[in-house]
Specification:
The protein is mainly α. It is 73% helix and 0% strand. It has two domains: 32-141; 152-295, no CATH class.
């Protein structure tokens, strides 16, 4: 058995971030009086499946392209280290896709039974999500190698995840809901930006033209400030416009470690020092989402 290798390949530390959008969207739905535990659990499982597909495909895609070379700073990849073969990774991706599609199918059946137009629309979105999870690094036209990763992360981890999960419950959207969707999208993009700041040198040498490679380290840091400050302002504006009470604003506590994180980013001089900052932003985003969910759900 290669349990340790598979656990490494699915990158457990990335999974909390992946469900943050579902927590925010479910909290928004609860604010409008709509909850359903079955939909909530199936949405979480579907999102976790998509993240695992993305992680395995990223390991595979970067591995066969030679991006994960000996100079890579982050955790060793399964394919790069030889822990999993190319064939094993491909099979793992396929199995993950099949399981995730089952979860997505059950989710859409539960949410949109008797609503074929919505079922069809979200089936297309689910297919696009699976496609984007794979094509980030896999294939000659991998968008992660063209500096488009940030756009896809913002769209799928933010707008699609938050607004899509809210719609599963409510069957409608509101203008104000866009603000927390943007907020979580910006934070998710900040995690990717940190990853790309850490991997700048190896990506540059391997021809992986991430946005950080295109911008350079200095401007990518400014971009990082914009992502975090923009997220904070969007969340504050939402809380003000929604006339939230004090316990619903507790989600803003997550921005305290993020502010300390920004001070650290200013001082980073060598790429490997960006690696521990990844966990700080990912966990802060997750706990912000948890407090948001509790504030608009459990305590109502």
């Amino acid at each position: 058995m290669k349990t340790k290798a598979w656990l490494s390949a699915v990158r457990l530390r990335t999974l909390p971030l992946s469900v943050s959008g579902i927590l925010i969207g479910s909290g928004l739905a609860a604010m409008y009086g709509s909850t359903d535990w079955v939909i909530f659990i199936l949405a979480l499982l579907s999102t976790l499946g998509l993240q695992i597909i993305s992680n395995l495909a990223n390991d595979y895609g970067d591995g066969i392209k030679g991006t994960d070379n000996e100079d890579r700073i982050g955790p060793k990849r399964a394919y790069q280290s030889g822990a999993l073969s190319r064939k094993e990774l491909k099979m793992g991706i396929l199995v993950s896709i099949l399981i995730t599609l089952v979860f997505i199918g059950l989710l859409l059946y539960k949410a949109f039974e008797g609503m074929p137009e919505y079922f069809l629309l979200f089936t297309v979105l689910g297919g696009l999500a699976v496609w984007s999870a794979i094509r980030y690094t896999v294939g000659d036209a991998a968008y992660g190698y063209k500096g488009l990763g940030d756009l896809f992360v913002f769209s799928f981890f933010g707008l699609v995840s938050v607004l899509g999960s809210m719609f599963l419950f409510t069957k409608y959207l509101t203008v104000i809901a866009v603000l927390p969707a943007i907020s979580i999208g910006l934070l998710s993009t900040a995690v990717l930006n940190l990853n790309n700041l850490r991997d700048h040198n190896s990506d540059l040498s391997a021809g992986k033209n991430t946005l950080v490679v295109k911008l350079g380290i200095k401007r990518a840091k400014y971009y990082h400030y914009f992502l975090l400050v923009g997220s904070f302002l969007c969340m504050v504006l939402f809380l003000v416009l929604s006339k939230s009470v004090w316990y619903q604003a507790l989600c803003l506590l997550a921005y305290i470690p993020l502010a300390l994180h920004l001070r650290k980013v200013v001082r980073v001089q060598v790429p490997q020092d960006f690696d521990p900052e990844l966990k700080k932003v990912a966990l802060s985003t997750f706990f912000m989402a948890v407090f948001f969910y509790l504030g608009f759900n459990i305590f109502l």
